[in-house]
Write a structure and sequence with these properties.
Layout (H helix, E strand, L loop, with lengths): L18 E8 L7 E8 L4 E5 L6 H9 L6 E6 L5 E4 L11 H6 L3 H12 L10 H9 L2 H14 L13 H13 L5 E5 L7 H13 L3 E5 L3 H7 L2 E6 L2 E6 L2 H33 L3 H5 L3 H16 L20 E12 L2 E12 L3 E5 L6 H8 L7 E6 L5 E4 L12 H5 L4 E4 L2 E4 H7 L4 H5 L7 H12 L6 E5 L7 H13 L3 E5 L3 H7 L2 E5 L5 E5 L2 H7 L1 H20 L6 H28 L9 H29 L1
Parallel strand pairs: 3-7, 3-8, 5-6, 6-7, 12-18, 12-19, 14-17, 17-18
Antiparallel strand pairs: 1-2, 1-4, 8-9, 10-11, 10-13, 15-16, 19-20
Helix pairs in contact: 3-4, 3-5, 9-11, 20-22, 21-22
Length: 630
């Protein structure tokens, strides 16, 4: 694992906040995006920026980046502060080599260096002398060293074409581009979008090692929780700060919302009492207190200016009838592409009510497997048996079912009434459940944000009845509240689910088993979610087995001088480990039985907790063995 550090010349520590917002207002419509907001950004903070879709998170980054200016208030930036930014959307119109893309992250020096790369760079038989003189004048040779250093650290080919890269590799190039100026502040807008888990873990390691202030927008709870030293929330134009990571924020935020509800309820009760008083007859008006009247007018103004919290999405599934008990039987599936095996001898049984996660690197064959399991494509060899009475609903990762030329309403249905679980509902009421106001529902889909497009796709998908749901990356761009609602919905869903996701927390909370692509065509199924896969995956099992045999050999050939009690403890460990391994094997076998997940949820949870306890105890035994041997 490469260790990443501050790449270039160290800078003296600042003596003040890098950036300060003092009573800043930014407004594009009726309600300001920022409403007299305040924020101080200190050196070496890693700030997680969260908020509802459309709350203005990207606008705040543009303000810090200098792309927009406040309508009112003061934005103070420490002199010499350099800001780097990773944009949310990967540009589709870049036709340059990787070196040029990275170099253009420094606009002043990058143009000449990009020309140098396009003309052949170091390998050119001759170079334009005027260009070489210009490069020396703007110090582009120093930038050249920085670009090559980043390419080396990020495992990038300087001369490869950006347009020919995968989505994950393009994001890697854009990250290098954001870092090429050696920024003091790094702005990251949804950096994990469309990245596989392996690349997300690489990015986590990179960001943890950088000596730079960061502001991160991300829907990935594991990612934001791992990186953040502080959470700031943009809500109804105000910025609130919560020290600590995302898990700490959730606890503190829940208490803050309770306090807000109590305060608002007391205010509304007092206002209602004063309204009754002001409307009393002549006898009351004789004793009217003018100070009290003025106070009432101020209360009315305060209430009219209060921005109530936006409601939570209210999503419901249009569940179809029951499918057959056996949904999919797959035996010895094989698939290859361009001579490369992507699925080799994979078998599985999926029963009604199973919730199966599929994980693996981008391009490994997850979509190919889904198409085989749902009967859309046939395997090159092996057998697929599809169960009876299946009603399949499919959400693809490209959201291809959305037409940008149609309104939100017409994308979902051309009718004013739709039927959900046997009940008729007006289309506008249905869309409001997905947080689309009437004006937004009439707007063309082309104007929607990423999160809104995802909510639209879910709204369209859930109008049809189904008992077999296939979701390919459903969490991209969803705000945390909608994400958690979808999570709960899928947990309560009684049909069968196939879920492709790189969101580790989402997988852990939803799925009952995981199909993992582990390289070279090896595909295996495991009980549980992402964390369970980490404990059970094949390469870890092999490593533990090898270490165990090595340790046993050492114990026999190199006895240590231990006290009587410690020596006795060491001698008893192999038997204890053997017993624990048998218990784990028995528990795993029981949990893999077809009817296991048809029983009471409490029994399922108890079995899962017991298996985890056995595994934790086994890990502790191996650690103790290593300690005594050492």
């Amino acid at each position: 694992m490469v260790h990443f550090a501050r790449f270039f010349t160290a800078k003296p520590p600042p003596i003040m906040s890098l950036i300060s917002l003092n009573n800043v207002t930014v407004a594009f419509g009726a309600d300001p995006i920022l409403d007299q907001a305040n924020l101080n950004i200190e050196p070496n903070e890693r700030i997680g920026l969260i908020g509802r879709n459309g709350a203005g998170k990207s606008t705040l980054l543009k303000l810090i980046d200098g792309n927009i200016v406040p309508d009112d208030g003061e934005l103070l930036v420490q002199q010499g502060t350099i800001v780097g930014r990773l944009v949310q959307e990967v540009p589709s119109d870049i036709d340059l080599d990787i070196g040029s893309v990275i170099a253009l992250g420094d606009e002043a020096r990058g143009k000449s260096l990009s020309r140098y790369y396009l003309e052949g760079g170091d390998d050119a038989s001759s170079n334009d002398e005027d260009l070489l003189m210009l490069m020396a004048e703007v110090d582009a040779w120093t930038l050249d060293v920085q670009v090559k250093t980043l390419c080396s650290k990020f495992d990038l080919d300087l001369k490869a074409q950006f347009s020919e890269l995968s989505g994950g590799m393009k994001r890697r190039v854009l990250m290098a581009r954001a870092l090429v100026r050696d920024p003091d502040i790094l702005l990251l807008d949804e950096p994990t979008n469309h990245l596989d888990i392996e690349t997300i873990l690489w990015l986590e390691t990179l960001l943890m090692s950088l000596n730079v202030t960061m502001i991160i927008i991300s829907h990935d709870r594991s990612f934001i929780d791992k990186l953040s030293t502080r959470i700031i929330e943009l809500d109804r134009g105000q910025i609130s700060s919560y020290p600590g990571n995302f898990e700490t924020y959730q606890v503190t935020k829940a208490k803050a919302l309770e306090d807000e509800e109590v305060t608002n309820a007391k205010f509304d009760k007092r206002l209602a009492q004063e309204e009754v008083w002001i409307r009393k007859g002549i006898q009351a008006r004789r004793t009217r207190n003018e100070g009290r009247v003025r106070a009432l007018k101020k209360m009315r103004d305060d209430r009219s200016q209060r921005r109530d919290r936006q409601g939570t999405a209210s999503i419901s599934l249009n569940q179809g009838g029951k499918s057959g008990k056996i949904v999919i039987e797959a035996e010895n599936l094989h698939a290859s592409f361009d001579g490369k095996t992507i699925i080799n001898d994979f078998s599985c049984n999926i029963l009604r009510g199973d919730k199966v996660g599929i994980i693996g690197p981008n391009g490994c064959g997850k979509s190919t497997l889904i198409k085989m399991l749902t009967g859309e494509n046939s395997p090159q060899s092996g057998n697929i048996k599809i169960g009876t009475s299946l009603e399949i609903a499919y959400l693809d990762q490209h959201r291809s079912a959305i037409r940008d030329d149609l309104s939100v309403q017409d994308n979902v249905s051309g009718n004013n009434e739709i039927t959900i679980n046997g009940q008729s509902k007006h289309i506008m009421g249905y869309l409001q459940d997905f947080l689309f106001s009437p004006s937004r529902a009439r707007a063309p889909a082309a104007k929607l944000s990423g999160g809104e497009r995802n909510r639209l796709m879910l709204a369209k998908l859930f109008t049809q009845p189904f008992n077999f749901l296939v979701l390919d990356e459903p969490t991209n761009d969803l705000d945390y509240e909608t994400l958690e609602l979808l999570e709960q919905l899928l947990m309560d869903y009684t049909g069968t689910l196939l879920l492709v996701s790189h969101d580790r927390t989402f997988l852990d909370n939803v799925v009952t088993s995981t199909i993992a692509f582990e390289g070279n065509g090896a595909v295996y199924e495991y009980i549980g979610g992402y964390q369970d896969w980490l404990r059970q995956r094949r390469d870890v099992d092999i490593q533990i087995s090898t270490e165990k045999k090595t340790d046993v050999s050492k114990a026999k050939s190199k006895p240590k001088k231990l006290s009587y009690n410690l020596q006795r403890e060491l001698e008893q460990l192999p038997k204890k480990i053997d017993n624990l391994e048998k218990k784990i094997a028995a528990s795993t076998q029981a949990m893999s039985e077809p009817d296991f997940y048809q029983q009471d949820q409490n029994m399922i949870a108890k079995a899962g907790s017991q298996l985890k306890a056995f595994q934790d105890e086994l890990d502790a035994c191996f650690a103790r063995w290593e300690e005594l041997e050492g």
